[in-house]
Amino acid sequence: MDGLTLPAADWQDRPGLAALADALGGDRGEARFVGGVVRDTLLGITAADLDVATAHDPQTVLARLKAAGIRAVPTGLQHGTITAVLESGPVEVTTLRRDVATDGRHATVAFTDDWREDAARRDFTMNALYADMLTGRITDYFGGVADLRAGRVRFIGDPLRRIAEDHLRILRFFRFLARFGDTPDPEGLAACVARANDLMALSRERVADELLKLLVARSAVEVVGLMQAQGIFVPVLPEIDSAGVAWLARLAAREQACGVPPDAIRRLVALIPADALESVGARLKLSNVQRKRLALAATAEGISSPRALAYRIGTEGAIDRLLLSDDPEAAGAVADLLDWVRPQFPLTGGALVARGIGKGPDVARALRRIEDQWIAEGFPDAARVEALTVAELDQRLRSSSS
After folding, report:
1. HSE-up of 214 (CA within 13 Å, CB side)?
2. What's the CA gap between 192 and 231, in Å, rounded?
3. Residue partners of 207: CB distance under 8 A and separation at least 6
4. What is the reported pLDDT for 109?
5. 302 pLDDT band (50/70/90 cuts)?
6. Res. 106 pLDDT band, cuts 50 70 90
7. What is the pLDDT of residues 219-253, one digit of tens each?
8. What is the DSSP letter of 225?
9. CB of 104 within 8 A of CB of 165?
């Protein structure tokens, strides 16, 4: 689009960026910002990562960065990607490419000096935008700016061909729709529905990564509902049904009402039936921490005292369980936990041993009884804990003398 330039953004002042542009010949159009950083800056969104495309082959990039005193890490040399480590953080520099062969999961590429050819291999028009490293002038080969303004996620060229090149683009279509879109592009949606079974060829880690990103996007509820209605989940997550979508909608409303940011793991708990969470967590190869959180959040017990629950399972777990509870008033307790600091129990097993309780199971049992009472009374001060300790010792003394 002639005359369009990037608006000013904080990332443009990152230390070392001007030196990188100079090293790569940015003043001659030999290197341009590309993809998400251009898209997000046009939308006024803070850009998370900086990516640069260049007409230089990887070895030339390495040589130029070395000559400029910029540390270069060959993070993906066979695919033309080198990470320039600036004082303000990393920037990925990738040589222009064209696909030689694809199998739906991986691509064999060849390097090129044709910018349009590089743009044509990308997924969506809004991700194929380039910006001059010095002037910010936008280069748009496929109408990405117009699509971005219209909230339209549109494949470049034939959607079926784009999906055949990388099956993950089905999930990316919906994730980008949830983040940036208003209504789905009919041709793109039809292609995703037609090729949904291709998702079975993907690693479950890639599926999980896209799903978790999608679940916290702006229009996650509506888009997940669309995906469920169109059968997109059936090949990889058949457990997701209309009831799960309804629970997700209710959870999202509760999060908003309580001022709690959306959370992907919590939302996954709403979406998947409780008796399937363990198997889904294993299938998606979630981390042990994530799978433990799934299990904690799905448990419907122990929410009568929110602070006691938060003390025992952690504030995050308690908030999860409250927001996911059947009790319509349970979410009201969330506000009480948002700024609550978990207290430290002011008694140790060593202190009980010093009072005459022998080491071993007796100490653990006594400590647990005192702590349970302390929790039940709402975490009173150390003086009350001392009184509870004395009462416990007296009870033990009476029991031993009877």
Report:
1. 28
2. 10
3. 171, 199, 236, 237, 284
4. 77
5. low
6. low
7. 999 999 999 999 999 999 999 999 999 999 999 99
8. H
9. yes
| CA separation for the pair 60, 94 (Å, rounded) | 11
* Cα 355 to Cα 21, 157, 230, 369, 385, distances in angstroms: 71, 79, 67, 16, 14
Closest to 122 in 3D by CA, of 36, 218, 28: 36
The number of residues in the chain equals: 402
Burial of 57 (0-12, 13-18, 19+ CB in 10 A): middle
3-state secondary structure 107-156: EEEEECCCHHHHHHCCCEHHHCEEEECCCCEEEECCCHHHHHHHCCCCEC
Res 269 pLDDT > 70: yes
**Nearest alpha-carbon partner for 56 in 82, 86, 34, 76:** 82
> Average model confidence (pLDDT) for the chain?
91
pLDDT band at 396 (very low <50, low <70, confident <90, very high): confident
Q: Do the Cβ atoms of 308 and 379 come closer than 8 Å?
A: no
Distance CA 85, CA 367 (A): 53
Helix (H) or strand (E) holding 354: helix 349-354
User: Which is nearest to 324 in space by CA: 308, 305, 316, 225?
Assistant: 316
pLDDT value for 76: 84
Q: Which of 127, 126, 298, 271 is nearest to 212 (CA)?
A: 271
Amino acid present at 74: P
Element (H, E) at 90: strand 89-95
Output the pLDDT for position 333: 85
Give residue-wise pLDDT tens across range 45-95. 998 889 999 999 999 999 999 999 999 999 888 889 999 999 999 999 999
Per-residue pLDDT averaged across 10-32, rounded? 92
Q: How far apart are CA 188 and CA 156, in angstroms?
A: 10
- Alpha helices for 260-339 (secondary structure H): 264-271, 277-283, 288-298, 306-313, 315-323, 334-338
Distance between CA atoms of residues 323 and 311, nearest Å? 17
At residue 268, the pLDDT reads 98
For the chain, percent of residues with pLDDT exceeding 70 = 96
SS3 2: coil
Please provide residue 273's backbone torsions phi and psi, each rounded to the nearest 5 degrees.
-55, 145
Answer positive or negative: Cα dihedral of 40, 42, 43, 45: positive
In angstroms, the CA 56 to CA 62 distance is 10
